[in-house]
């Protein structure tokens, strides 16, 4: 979908919609089971930025990286999860997996 000079893929639209819904949940104080809403919002924004900056990445391996990152946010602090995401992303780019 083209919106001016920007092209939004269905995955980016889904991430934007997820970020908006999480923002509404934070605003109204709704509870999200198992996950911290602020951590989820941070991860969604980071995933959206990395996906938006590199549109030519392979979706399957990036999807697996995003899922592992989301599930690690259940057990680890946000700093370690963000560190894992960026180190894994850089290694995937270096090894040409993504």
Morphology call: flat
Tell me the number of helical segments per DSSP (H or I, 4 or more residues long).
4
Sheet with most strands: 2 strands, antiparallel
Kindly provide the radius of gyration, computed on alpha-carbon positions and rounded to a whole number of angstroms.
14 Å
Helix and strand element order: EEHHHH
Helix fraction by DSSP (H/I, runs of at least 4): 55-70%
Tell me what portion of residues adopts beta-strand conformation: under 5%
Number of strand elements = 2
What would the average pLDDT be, to the nearest integer? 84
Largest beta sheet: strand ordering:
1-2
Unreliable stretches: none
Class by SSE composition: mainly alpha
Question: How far is the N terminus from the C terminus?
Answer: 23 Å
């Amino acid at each position: 979908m083209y919106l001016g000079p920007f092209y939004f893929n269905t995955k980016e639209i889904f991430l934007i919609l997820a970020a908006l819904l999480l923002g509404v949940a934070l605003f109204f104080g709704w509870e999200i089971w198992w996950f911290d809403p602020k951590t989820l919002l941070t991860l969604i924004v980071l995933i959206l930025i990395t996906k938006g900056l590199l549109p030519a990445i392979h979706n399957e391996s990036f999807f697996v990286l995003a899922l592992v990152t989301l599930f690690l946010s259940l057990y680890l602090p946000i700093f370690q999860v963000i560190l894992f995401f960026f180190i894994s992303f850089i290694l995937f780019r270096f090894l040409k997996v993504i």
